[in-house]
Design brief:
The complex is a heterodimer of chains A (644) and B (77). Chain A has 644 residues and is α+β, with helices and mostly antiparallel strands. Chain A is built from 17 helices and 16 strands. In chain A, strands 1, 2, 3, 8, 9 and 10 form a six-stranded antiparallel β-sheet that branches. A four-stranded antiparallel β-sheet of chain A has the order 5-6-4-7, covered by helices on one side. Chain B is 86% helix and 0% strand. Classes of the chains: A alpha+beta (644), B mainly alpha (77). At the A-B interface, helix 8, helix 12, helix 15, helix 16 and helix 17 of A face helix 3 and helix 4 of B.
């Protein structure tokens, strides 16, 4: 559990004429992480892709372009038999491609038409209220035609220049059409410029604008309807072929992956050599698979893992199913390296624990629990599921702490010092006095009244968590560099802390004060020997890291404050209990729902982020290096087609 | 008599002002630091999406400042 899977390095060697069978078998087995071969000047060369490759990739490109054109999404469909898909692949692909091409072409033409209609409509609109055939706008020898927008009525000024004119004015839109004799044109143009005249293009059409517009609009409707019909056809194609597209995409992807495999493999004139990794427990299976596929003509050998190799070992987690969602959190930070402890199982306990301590509210726990379960049920995505599982773990812990703290949506469940609680007759039981005035530990624990106690308690929680980190670090160091390095590098921190504890006891007069100081100094000397100058510089981090855990109470209190403010506004200010139900009641309910919805969203983000940070910065900082490579076996997990 | 009452300051009020300063100023400090880190982290993520985890951690590191401010405020009140 606390270690990644044990890995073996294997090399498969054989004659080139069995390469295809070998690759096929490896791909199907999906367990061998191929180490990409880099040419290193030796006689070994990178292999050439199988011949079928280029043909298959062409088809794959085609199917992917069709899929994106049709908007085919990854959905759960029934698995299909690969032989069936293969047999109809070429014919169906061609047919689909042709059909789609015709439709796309038609659609393209119609869309262009629609664009043209739109632009001529735009040109026509200004003239709509001027009842004049468009043919009358052109073709005069002695007449000038002005058509455009003006800001004011120009008729009086024009009548001063000439009496022979014809003016059409649309008061509403400010469009004028003016016919004047050519010799007066320049004077008239000046007047028009004074009225900020803006010329309009006269559409090259014949007929009265209002009637033309009706025609154009009719045409627009027709074209739009045609486009819609084509869209329906495309949609029908999508429905009809979605299964086929998904399945053949998968098949072709697999084929391409296989045919390109030689590019990762070392070859000579007549032989090949595949180098890679796999979990040791599956080594026998690899041998069996390769032997079966090649009639024993390929040779599988187990390689010794040398020291420089250890950095390269791909990492596969080895956790029980319950813990596996937490691997997502590990991956976010970086996989462990081969010789390191895998802390997923530790996080499995501490992450929900810290989250619960921060949030600790029955109401929010129930809301988020239901939410997480619902999302898990509805969404089938593989990326969401682990996250929802983590959320569920966290809410179980929140529920526990919620009962401990006696909180429900920011209301205290139990009465305390005369203040009534949510449950009538449930009074806080005082159990234990603390050194802080006015703070008594009882059940339920009132966080708001036990601030000092909680600050101290969270620091203690922090110290426990940090020491767990040092302990794991001790084990890691021992495995990597031996026991003495572990004692000086990580063990010294325990000595330092013990020294501080003794000093405190000495200060309280229970011990001679010198003892603590001596132990502390021994610890510092060990630290310097273990980590060099860097060690003592890191000493203050002991203080800052453990104080960092006070966020458990600080963030928790801020969440309570938001919740109780919402409650106060809703119940105290807007809807005093006992008042008759009216408009304000509804408003109060809206405030209540909205406020708590907001706080619920914050309840995922704030405690989640802070719990995560405590893991990553404070806890991991004590032992974790990470940066391991992901174990990525050569193969494919089929979703849409059955295994051959 | 009158001047005396005017110049008297309520200790509870001063405490409240101190607490407000502790939370407010540290809030500004965290926000400023997170802004700088956040923009850089988003830039890095645009290049390489797998840096999300590291970016997130780096962005929340200065959050400690405001948490300490909050704790100080709690101690004062």
């Amino acid at each position: 559990m606390l270690k990644p899977k044990q890995m073996s390095r294997a090399v498969i060697v054989g004659h080139k004429n069995i390469l295809e069978e070998t690759v096929d078998a490896l791909h199907k087995a999906n367990l061998f992480h191929i180490e990409d071969f880099n040419e290193d000047g030796s006689d070994l060369k990178i292999g050439k892709p199988f011949e079928s490759g280029s043909e298959v990739s062409k088809k794959l490109v085609k199917i992917r372009s069709i899929a994106s054109l049709l908007g085919v999404k990854d959905v759960a469909v029934e698995k299909q038999s690969p032989s069936e898909v293969c047999s109809q692949l070429d014919s169906s692909l061609d047919k689909l491609d042709n059909e789609l091409e015709v439709l796309a072409e038609k659609k393209h033409v119609l869309e262009n038409e629609l664009k043209e209609i739109g632009s001529s409509k735009k040109d026509l609109l200004p003239f709509i209220n001027i009842d004049l055939d468009l043919d009358l706008y052109r073709g005069y020898a002695n007449l000038a035609v002005f058509a455009g927008h003006v800001k004011e009525n120009v008729e009086p000024s024009i009548s001063k220049i000439t009496s022979s004119y014809e003016l059409y004015h649309d008061q509403h839109s400010g469009v004028v059409v003016l016919f004047v004799a050519k010799d007066k044109a320049s004077d008239v143009a000046e007047v028009l410029a004074g009225a900020s005249f803006k010329e309009l293009r006269v559409p090259v059409l014949s007929g009265v604008p209002s009637r033309l517009l009706a025609d154009i609009e009719q045409k627009e409707v027709d074209v739009t309807r045609k486009i819609e019909a084509i869209n329906t056809e495309i949609e029908a194609l999508k429905l009809k072929y979605a299964d086929f597209i998904l399945a053949s995409n998968e098949l072709l992807s697999i084929e391409v992956q296989k045919s390109e495999a030689p590019l990762r493999i070392a070859t000579t004139e007549s032989s090949f050599l595949i180098d890679g990794w796999l979990p040791t427990e599956q080594y026998a299976e690899l041998e069996r698979t390769v032997n079966a596929a090649t009639n024993g003509r390929a040779f599988v050998s187990d390689q010794e893992i040398t020291k420089p190799d250890i950095k390269k070992v791909p990492i596969e987690y080895n956790n029980p199913k319950v813990v596996s969602p937490l691997q997502e959190i590990m991956d976010l930070y970086g996989r462990p390296t081969y010789k390191e402890l895998d802390p997923s199982a530790l996080i499995f306990i501490t992450f929900p624990l810290l989250y619960g301590m921060i949030l600790g509210d029955i109401g929010y726990a129930l809301i988020l629990l239901v939410l997480a379960l619902a999302i898990k049920k509805i969404v089938s995505s593989d990326a969401i599921k682990p996250l929802m599982n983590i959320l569920i773990y966290c809410q179980v812990s929140t529920l526990f702490f919620g009962i401990l703290y006696g909180e429900f949506l920011g209301f205290p469940l139990a009465g305390y010092h005369g203040n009534p609680g949510l449950i009538p007759g449930f009074e806080t039981i005082d159990l234990l006095a603390t050194p802080f005035p006015g703070e008594v530990i009882g059940f339920p624990l009132h966080r708001t009244h036990l601030v000092m106690t909680f600050i101290v308690a969270t620091v203690i929680v922090g110290l426990l968590h940090l020491n767990l980190g040092y302990a794991v670090g001790f084990i890691n160091e021992k495995r990597k560099h031996g026991i003495s390095a572990a004692i000086f590098e990580k063990g010294s921190w325990f000595v330092v802390q013990f020294g501080i504890l003794l000093t405190v006891l000495g200060y309280l007069g229970m011990l001679p004060p010198v003892a603590g100081i001596v132990v502390f100094l021994i610890g510092v000397v060990m630290l310097v020997k273990g980590e060099g100058v860097k060690g003592p510089i890191e000493l203050p981090s002991l203080l800052s890291n453990s104080l960092s855990y006070t966020r458990i109470i600080a963030v928790g209190l801020s969440s309570i404050s938001i919740a109780s403010t919402v409650n106060l506004i809703a119940f105290g200010m807007i809807w005093p209990p006992g008042s008759p139900i009216g408009g304000m009641t509804i408003f109060a309910i809206v405030v209540f729902l909205f406020g708590h919805a907001l706080n619920t969203a914050l309840s995922i983000i704030a405690p989640g982020l802070h719990a995560l940070r405590l893991q990553y910065v404070e806890f991991f900082g004590k032992f974790y290096e990470g940066g391991g490579r992901k174990y990525d076996p050569f193969g494919y997990i089929r979703k849409y087609t059955e295994e051959k | 008599m009158v001047t005396e009452t005017v110049t008297m300051m309520d200790p509870a009020g001063l405490k409240a002002i101190g607490a407000a300063l502790a939370v407010g100023l540290t809030g500004f400090a965290s926000a400023y630091a997170e802004k700088e880190i956040g923009t850089a982290a988003i830039g890095a993520m645009a290049e390489n999406e797998s840096l999300f985890g590291k970016g997130l951690i780096l962005t929340v590191i200065p959050e400690t400042i405001v948490i300490f401010g909050l704790v100080v405020a709690l101690l004062m009140l």
